[in-house]
Design a protein that fits this description.
- The complex is a heterodimer of chains A (115) and B (113).
- Chain A has no helices and twelve strands.
- By secondary structure, chain A is an all-beta fold.
- In chain A, strands 2, 5, 6, 10, 11 and 12 form a six-stranded mixed sheet that branches. Chain A has a four-stranded antiparallel sheet with strand order 3-9-8-7, with no helix packed on it.
- In chain A, a hairpin with a 4-residue loop joins β8 and β9.
- Chain A is globular.
- The termini of chain A are far apart.
- Helix content of chain B is 0%, strand content 53%.
- The termini of chain B are far apart.
- In chain B, a hairpin with a 3-residue loop joins β4 and β5.
- With 113 residues, chain B is mainly beta.
- The chains are: A mainly beta (115), B mainly beta (113).
- The interface between A and B is medium-sized, with 20 and 26 residues.
Chain lengths: 115, 113
C-alpha cells in the first residue's frame, strides 16, 4: 500500500521569506501523481501544485515550486516570498495514474506566517 | 463554472441515527470521491463513484455507503452513527480525462452527540 509522510507537523516563517515543507512517500508504482493541497481555516481544500512522476522537471506555479526526487521518493514544496494568505494546513498527496481517483494524504503541516 | 457544492454544511446528530450527505460535482465531472477528515486519522478515502458505479472503496465499515445518480450528483449515507463518525466529510470531483485533478467542495461538518 502507498503511504505518504509529512514529518513536520508545524512550520513558521517570516512574511516575505522562503519556507520548504517536506514530504516522503512509498510506492512500488513507477508512474503516479503527487500533489500539494492547501487547506485554509475555511476548510476548503485547494490544489497548489501537481507533479507527474514521469516528468523530471520540477513543477512550478508562481511562488510555489517543488523539489521532486524520484529515487529518494521525496517531494518537497518551496514557498517563496511568503504572504499572510499562505497560512494554512498543507497536505502532500499521492495518486496512481490509472484507475480510481483515490488520493493518499500525508498528515499535514500547519504553516504559520509571522508578520 | 460553479464549484463543487456540498449540503448540508453542518449537521448535528445523535448516536444511532443515520445521516445522508449530498455532493454536486462541477458540471461535466463524472467522478466523485468522498473523504473523511478527523484530527486523529487525518484525511482518509471513503469511496469513489464514476458513472453511477462504485469504482473504489476505502477501509470503512459497511455502515458507510454511497451512490451516484445519472447527473453525477452523489450521496453518502452513514447508518447507526457512532461518536467516532464526527468529522469533516469532503467530496471531490474530477473530469475523466486529463488533467484530472480533484476539486474539493467545502465539506460537511458532522457532529455526533
Amino acid at each position: 500500500a502507498q503511504t505518504v509522510t509529512q514529518s513536520q507537523p508545524e512550520m513558521s516563517v517570516q512574511e516575505a521569506e522562503t519556507v520548504t515543507l517536506s514530504c516522503t512517500y512509498d510506492t512500488s508504482e513507477s508512474d503516479y501523481y503527487l500533489f500539494w493541497y492547501k487547506q485554509p481555516p475555511s476548510r476548503q481544500m485547494i490544489l497548489v501544485i501537481r507533479q507527474e512522476a514521469y516528468k523530471q522537471q520540477n513543477a512550478t506555479e508562481n511562488r510555489f515550486s517543488v523539489n521532486f526526487q524520484k529515487a529518494a521518493k521525496s517531494f518537497s514544496l518551496k514557498i517563496s516570498d511568503s504572504q499572510l494568505g499562505d497560512a494554512a494546513m498543507y497536505f502532500c498527496a499521492y495518486r496512481k495514474v490509472q484507475g480510481a481517483q483515490k488520493l493518499v494524504f500525508g498528515q499535514g503541516t500547519r504553516l504559520t506566517i509571522n508578520p | 463554472k460553479a464549484g463543487v457544492t456540498q449540503t448540508p454544511r453542518y449537521l448535528i446528530k445523535t448516536r444511532g441515527q443515520q445521516v445522508t450527505l449530498s455532493c454536486s460535482p462541477i458540471s461535466g465531472h463524472r467522478s466523485v470521491s468522498w473523504y473523511q477528515q478527523t484530527p486523529g486519522q487525518g484525511l482518509q478515502f471513503l469511496f469513489e463513484y464514476f458513472s453511477e458505479t462504485q469504482r473504489n472503496k476505502g477501509n470503512f465499515p459497511g455502515r458507510f455507503s454511497g451512490r451516484q445518480f445519472s447527473n453525477s450528483r452523489s450521496e453518502m449515507n452513514v447508518s447507526t452513527l457512532e461518536l467516532g463518525d464526527s468529522a469533516l466529510y469532503l467530496c471531490a470531483s474530477s473530469y475523466s480525462g486529463d488533467p484530472n485533478e480533484q476539486f474539493f467542495g467545502p465539506g460537511t461538518r458532522l457532529t455526533v452527540l
